[in-house]
Amino acid sequence: MKQKIYIALVTLLGILFGTLVTSLIETQLIYASLSSGHIPASYGDNFYLSPFLSLGILIAATVGGFLLGHSWWRYVYVERRHWSDGVAKSSKPAKTVTKVKTKSVSKKKNRR
């Protein structure tokens, strides 16, 4: 349940980020049109960016938020990596390299 809520909230954050990016692009587009002396063309009521581009940005932000939620869930809750004083710490002990015993091959003497 906690994982689903976490991923849903990060996806919502992605949607909000996509809306912010779309509004910033529209603002720059309107400003550029007005500064050059043109009246910006609108697509319906108060939409100055192409609906396909606007929808594409929104879909990309939604998918990006979903994937970000999955990856950070694994990173924070499964692998238990946390930060303290700017250094990544893990609650799991670090794996140590152990020497692997190898079988020694002894040559048998030919006895006749």
Explain the overall architecture.
The protein is mainly alpha-helical. The protein contains 2 helices and 2 strands, in the order H-H-E-E. A two-stranded antiparallel sheet has the order 1-2. Strand 1 and strand 2 form a beta hairpin. Helix 1 packs antiparallel against helix 2. The chain is elongated. The model has no long low-confidence stretch (mean pLDDT 82).
Q: What is the count of DSSP helices, taking H or I runs of 4+ residues?
A: 2
Query: Judging from the principal axes of the Cα atoms, what is the shape?
Result: elongated
| Strand arrangement across the biggest beta sheet | 1-2
The biggest sheet, with number of strands, parallel, antiparallel or mixed sense and barrel status, is: 2 strands, antiparallel
SSE series:
HHEE
- End-to-end distance, in Å? 75 Å
**Fraction of residues in β-strands:** 5-15%
Global structural class: mainly alpha
Q: Which residues form runs of ≥5 with pLDDT under 50?
A: none
Radius of gyration: 28 Å
- Average pLDDT, all residues: 82
What percentage of residues falls in helices of 4 or more residues? 55-70%
Number of strands: 2
